[in-house]
Write a structure and sequence with these properties.
It is a multi-pass membrane protein. The protein has one domain. Helix content is 84%, strand content 0%. The protein has 9 helices and no strands. The longest helix has 30 residues.
């Protein structure tokens, strides 16, 4: 299983390095969104708490823009059946999930770096900041990977993807906004442990749900 999952991961990385579709799309979208926030919303004049949560809106729509193609391109290039013949469902899901996690982790680091510089913010608690980025990428990747597989053969993929993703990601964004506020504004005071537990629980639940449900999606 591990070998097959790593093969899927290698395939995804090789394909992305060849086409650079998701990289260029997400970087362009993120850069434009950050400049839009800076110049049109006067975000530098906002209080620190709204500023610490605004970045997750940018990351959410950037992730939805790029991650939809996780399985869609398999149907477009007629490689879905080839994967079914050569790999088991769990191996495909794990390889795709790890790739999306690594990709979104890079996106998080890129976005937060420029956002903090542009907004003249500072990191108050580095452990909570890293925790938010790591589990934020895990939560986003788990939801977008599963939903991308669900809508891969739908007619109107973009609309269906957004409709399914946003309700599932709202709880994650609410938790991440609070943990990011702790990391960038208030600092830890002991009351944030519930948010950390909720964030771990959300990621664990969505990843477990993906592993359990993907077999049915893959076979159908």
């Amino acid at each position: 299983m591990l070998k097959s999952s790593l093969t899927i991961l290698k395939k995804e990385i090789t394909q992305e390095l060849r086409t650079k579709y998701a990289i260029n799309t997400l970087l362009a979208f993120t850069g434009a969104a950050l400049l839009l926030i800076l110049f049109t919303l006067s975000a530098q004049q906002l209080d620190p708490t709204p500023k610490s949560g605004l970045v997750w809106i940018v990351i959410l729509f950037a992730a939805m823009t790029g991650m939809m193609r996780s399985f869609v391109h398999e149907t477009e290039k007629k490689t879905w059946e080839l994967l079914r013949l050569n790999s088991r469902a769990t191996e495909v899901y794990t390889g795709k999930l790890v790739y999306n996690f690594l990709f979104l982790l890079i996106l998080h680091i890129f976005t937060f770096f420029f956002y903090i510089v542009m907004m003249n913010m500072k990191i108050v608690s580095l452990p909570y900041f890293l925790f938010s980025i790591l589990f934020g990428a895990a939560g986003l990747s788990s939801v977008t990977t599963l939903v991308s597989a669900m809508i891969a053969k739908a007619d109107r993929k973009g609309a269906v993807f957004s409709v399914l993703c946003i309700p599932l990601l709202v709880p994650l964004l609410l938790i991440l906004t609070r943990t990011t506020t702790i990391a960038l504004v208030n600092g830890p005071d002991g009351s944030e442990l519930n948010d950390l537990a909720a964030l771990i629980g959300y990621c664990g639940t969505t990843i477990a749900a993906g592993v359990l449900l993907f077999d049915y999606i893959w076979d159908e």
